[in-house]
Amino acid sequence: MAGPSGVPGRRAVNRRLAVAGLLAAGTLALVVYGGSSLTRVWQMKQEVERLERDIGALRGEADRLSTDIDQLRTDPEALEKAARDIGLVKPGEKILKLPPTPGG
């Protein structure tokens, strides 16, 4: 919409400024809100990776405990050692408590 001298009219300039303003506002909103969303996605990804490591460690511990349980169920010597580690004694046994040695 050029005027008689070939210069764009006032309405065309206003329309272009309005479109440019809307694009700028949209871009700004995307940067502000989209940036925080990207930050949140990155934080969640880090947390998922940490939780996956925790799950791996817990699975390893569960496997070790299952092995210990199987050993306690099938190996009488392992069962006796575990019982003695927590202070149990066989019937008729006597416990001798010695005074602590100096410096030890």
Describe this structure in words.
The chain is an all-alpha fold. It is 72% helix and 0% strand. α1 crosses α2. The longest helix has 65 residues, at 10-74. The termini are far apart. The relative contact order is 0.04. The mean pLDDT is 86.
Broad structural category: mainly alpha
Major pleated sheet: none
CA-to-CA gap between the ends?
100 Å
Q: What's the SSE pattern?
A: HH
Q: Per the principal axes of the C-alpha atoms, what is the gross shape?
A: rod-shaped
Helix content: over 70%
Number of helices: 2
Approximate strand percentage? under 5%
What is the arithmetic mean of pLDDT? 86
Strand tally? 0
Given as residue ranges, the uncertain stretches (5+ residues, pLDDT < 50) are none
Radius of gyration from the alpha-carbon trace, in angstroms: 38 Å
Give a brief outline of the structure.
This protein is 72% helix and 0% strand. With 104 residues, it is mainly alpha-helical. The model has no long low-confidence stretch (mean pLDDT 86).
